[in-house]
Amino acid sequence: MDKLIIRGGKRLKGEVYIGGAKNAALPIMAASILASGLHSISKVPDLKDVLTMGQLLANFGAGFHYEDRNVFISTERMSKIEAPYELVRTMRASILVLGPLLARFGRAKVSLPGGCAIGARPINLHLTGLTKMGTDIKLDSGYVIAKAKRLKGASIYLDIPTVTGTENLMMAASLAKGRTLLENAAREPEVVDLANALISMGAKIKGAGESLIEIEGVDDLKPLEYSIIPDRIEAGTFMTIAAITGSEIIIKDCRPENLEALILKLKEAGLSFESFSDGICVAGLSRPRVADIKTMPYPGFPTDMQAQFMALMCVADGTSIIRETIFENRFMHVAELKRMGADISVDGGIATVKGVSKLKGAPLMATDLRASASLVVAALAAKGETTVHRIYHLDRGYEKMEEKLVKLGADVRRVKE
Ligand code: EPU
User: What is the mean pLDDT of residues 33-44?
Assistant: First the structure.
């Protein structure tokens, strides 16, 4: 297990290149199940979760090869339809294979993901939607066992605009007989990227990025040749790093139009923005101003940026209110930030953060992916040395974070525990 040792307080400067979006790459890799042949996907980030999805596909009998941000998947000889507990427990996004397996093979056996550090995270909406499309679903010994002769189109209203739920149903509906309407669908850019990938395979999808998605099922799809969008959460994390360290950073390969809520809030906190054709230059104040946030489904403020924004507010000039409305337990970073001297009180889903003038380095424990990122953000501005243990969480979602930070002039080292 690796840890990061960070000596904070340095002004950063330079350019950082943003990788492909993890949460777009995972569903698009799962979409390869839908068509027999050789798929090629580019701009795939070099992350643990990508390899886990690759292992899952290989476990079904597909060929998987990752090289220099390109993924090649051959799906002609898939022979198994079971996603085992050992793989699903390491990555909840494994549930994304359920819709595609059912649509292509009429059968799937996928381990139930169970809860995780940030909440219970049920998959009831995925299952209700698939049942409406004619699937017979049984839960047995921790597995979802699903069967359908051929999926049929249906009108499905999602009680919550679930991201992976929308993606699973969109993939299933692409090969179903007839038309599917997904109402109250998730509108995240990653859902749109998956829809574009499916359309490039021959799927008939309208309305991705809006609340109503219409999918006209087709009989078969062709293999993928697709390039993933940049990761908006990685870009947002680097913006927050500029804001907390009072630095000027040029963020390349990012799409600011996918980050509007965060950018408005960072502007409120004093970060200035200048756009170029291939990126954005951000510059922070010597001390951030306060801003309140409330996490919401896209286009609202992303829950995946809440922890990093809280780190920023820990040193802001005043008191801010942070409301988490997506996950019931996504304040695991609070206890760690408090160990650095942050003044935070939590009442249910609301955190009140009183800014202090300086945080102090401390030994810290990463608990989940975005919580880990928030600890790195805080450590970069703290006085003295911080050690972040268990950074395998960070490695699931940030590609070579410490190398990118070192290039910007930060004092960060990765050390084996
Ligand atoms: N929910 C249900 N029933 C369902 C599905 C979801 O009650 O059947 C609830 C969840 O418990 C949660 C809310 O709906 O309270 C929203 O969850 P959603 O299903 O949208 O989340 P997800 O699809 O499991 C994806 C991302 C997460 C990101 C969330 C919210 C992927 C692979 N994961 O998760 O990313 O936080 O959407 O935007 O796309 C991360 O990258 O760190 C991460 C956790």
Answer: 98
Q: Can you give the pLDDT at residue 115? A: 67
Residue 119 has a pLDDT of: 79
Q: Could you read off the pLDDT of 79-88 as tens digits, one per residue?
A: 999 999 999 9
3-state secondary structure the chain: CEEEEEECCCCCEEEEECCECHHHHHHHHHHHHHCCCEEEEECCCCCHHHHHHHHHHHHCCCEEEEECCEEEEECCCCCCCEECHHHHCCCHHHHHHHHHHHHHHCEEEEECCCCECCECCCCHHHHHHHHHCCCEEEEECCEEEEECCCCECCEEECCCCCHHHHHHHHHHHHCCECEEEEECCCCCHHHHHHHHHHHHCCCEEECECECCEEEECCCCCCCCEEECCECHHHHHHHHHHHHHHCCEEEEECCCHHHCHHHHHHHHHCCCEEEEECCEEEEECCCCCCCCCEEECCCCCECHHHHHHHHHHHCCCCCEEEEECCCCCCCCHHHHHHHHCCCEEEEECCEEEEECCCCCECCEEECCCHHHHHHHHHHHHHCECEEEEECCHHHHCCCCCHHHHHHHCCCEEEEEEC
Atom of ligand 1 nearest to the CA of 328: 15
The closest residue, in CA terms, to atom 33 on ligand 1 is 23
All structural domains of the chain: 2-19+230-416 (3.65.10.10), 22-227 (3.65.10.10)
Tell me what pLDDT residue 331 has: 96
pLDDT digits (tens, 9 = 90+) for 148-176: 999 999 999 999 999 999 999 999 999 99
pTM of the model: 0.97
Q: Are 326 and 160 spatial neighbours (Cβ–Cβ below 8 Å)?
A: no
Phi, psi of 258 (to 5 degrees): -90, 0
User: Which two structure tokens, joined as six digits, stand for 278?
Assistant: 């291939």
Residue 277 confidence (pLDDT) above 90: no
Question: Above 80 in pLDDT, residue 226?
Answer: yes
CA-proximal residue: ligand 1, atom 4 (nearest) = 123
Active-site hit among 116, 254, 281, 314: 116
Pocket mutation for ligand 1, best pick of 28, 121, 156, 167 (most atoms within 8 Å of C-beta)? 121
